[in-house]
Amino acid sequence: IPTSRPKVCPSIEAWLAQPRPLLIDGKWVPALSGKTFPVFDPATGEKIADVAEGDAADIDLAVKAARRAFESGPWARMTPSERGRIIHKLGDLVLEHADELATLEALDNGKPKHVARAADVTLSADMFHYMAGWATKIEGKTISISALAAPGVDFFSATRPEPIGVVGQIIPWNFPLLMAAWKLGPALTTGCTVVLKVAEETPLSALRLGELILEAGVPAGVVNIIAGFGETAGAALSAHPDVDKVAFTGSTDVGRLIVKASAGNLKKVSLELGGKSPNIVLADADVELAIQGATAAVFFNHGQCCNAGSRLFVHRSIFDRVVEGVAAEAAKIKLGHGLNPDTEMGPLVSQVQYDRVTGLLASGRQQGATAVCGGAGVGGQGYFVPPTIFTNTTPSMRVVAEEIFGPVLVAAPFDDVDDALIAEANNSIYGLAAGVWSTNTAKAQSIAHRLKAGTVWVNCYHIFDAALPFGGYKQSGWGREMGQAVLNNYLETKAITTRLG
Ligand code: ADP
């Protein structure tokens, strides 16, 4: 466990040494209040940068810029192919700056740099490249109508998809760059303009992305980026009367606040919220594959994934073998600073998360669960929590019912693939993702049909693709991210009917 942060290259050190400003109307500006806030390296607790603290006044300026850019700026007048080329160029720039962006992500979020490079940065670039293609492929329909109230008259009817307008986007800290890409890609390709509020824990990579956005040729005001706190900047954005739509990724509790705040002007809302995803290993599973998969499902990104496979159900005949296997894999995971090339798991993102997760670990112990491994925070400097597996759990325990957002697995055996198993797997307020492990793919497929989850992975986990829709049933959210499906979040459908003759 590190005691001080490794040095990074001089150009990044120089970038971090300056207070990082906000992006409003194509210019980098300090907050109107003049305030800044510190950003910390979660592996050491050291300050790494100061960032301008945007609040309601800055949000208002940014919304005005986005409105101008939408109504009369070049974005509205640009052809789809020009828009697509700019978004594609942004994807290229992300790849050109991959190493730098991965370094910032490791420093700010704590995740291993090699993981940030392979996953966060690569998928972010791919999201821009994929979404760039949609710019020229957004189509309406012609519709034959009966027009019963106007007998004998001919009409021509067609739908025209139009951008929804000014979009407020609020993102979390677990995949700071990737969440920005998931949000910005579809908004830009549909022709919307954006005010993006980044998470206060991890503003750095999205602010650097803002520089690349200008370099790619996105006109002033089309993307505005505000760093600041949820209760001030985030709340102001979700309540702003001139924002047409808000897209939010974060906790279910804050999702509810967003819905309430958006009621004033009834702005459209899409939400990607929490999860407590079941991962089911059948008796006929490839056990080694399932052990590797169950380990990655819950411990990837330190468990700080809304889709983490955090509830493991294993057939009783192989339960001990699978749990011991996952525990053995967990024991191999090397904790350390994200910039250390050997590190496989970094710290949690903040003191707040450390206190939350270790509090839940304590509740698990107190409520009688058995910690097969881990079970308490590492302590000392940085916010490190080791991989933890609880067995002997009951459905009412907090560690089973609540989203933990840390490297914590609860495992329970089952006897039959029956209604009771499906009911238990679906026994959650959430419905984001699920996993099924079996060599009988027909059986796995039929279980997949019965799970109330927006994504089901069979004999795999965490497989994301810009082309695949992702989102939740139940209290895991509204709408879908990525794929063609996400375009609906950013388009209005206009039906135009013309009388002929
Ligand atoms: P997490 O639990 O993952 O920290 P949150 O839901 O608290 O996630 O935060 C996700 C994003 O929502 C962050 O950008 C945060 O600043 C923002 N946020 C927090 N509270 C509010 C709020 N009341 N209104 C709008 N945004 C908020």
Automatic annotation (TrEMBL):
Residues 28-496 form the Aldehyde dehydrogenase domain. It holds the Pfam family Aldedh. SUPFAM superfamilies: ALDH-like. The lineage of its organism: Bacteria, Pseudomonadati, Pseudomonadota, Alphaproteobacteria, Hyphomicrobiales. Keywords: NAD, Oxidation, Oxidoreductase, Potassium. The keyword NAD applies. GO terms for molecular function: oxidoreductase activity, acting on the aldehyde or oxo group of donors, NAD or NADP as acceptor. InterPro entries: Ald_DH/histidinol_DH, Ald_DH_C, Ald_DH_CS_CYS, Ald_DH_CS_GLU, Ald_DH_N, Aldehyde_DH_dom. Belongs to the aldehyde dehydrogenase family. The keyword Manganese does not apply. The active site is at residue 272. This is Aldehyde dehydrogenase family protein.
